[in-house]
Request: fold
Amino acid sequence: MVEAFVPAPTRFDCNKRTEVRHLDDNGAHILVSRPEPSLQRIHNEQVLIDRTGADRHHVVLRYASPAVLDLMAQVAGLTLEHRFGGWAHEPFDDTTTDHVSCYRIT
Reply:
């Protein structure tokens, strides 16, 4: 089984995205993302701020569309058996943002 997100290039405005994940009197969690479509990567800077200071973490994600995952699985000798929109077997469709894909050995 593979759990992954569905890449959505429209999430980025002017080749970046800034998102406040958490904000209250005790601190903040800010995520700044920059896509690198030619290499199918997203560079994330996570900034965590609390009363003791700030921490910054750089994370690079490599992404692949469900179709590319299926091709990689096929090359590895696997076949897609099921794809759901989540662990509760929600339907997978054009609006799905995450997926759980189940492969079997062929």
Summary: Helices lie at 66-75. The mean pLDDT is 95. The longest helix spans residues 66-75.
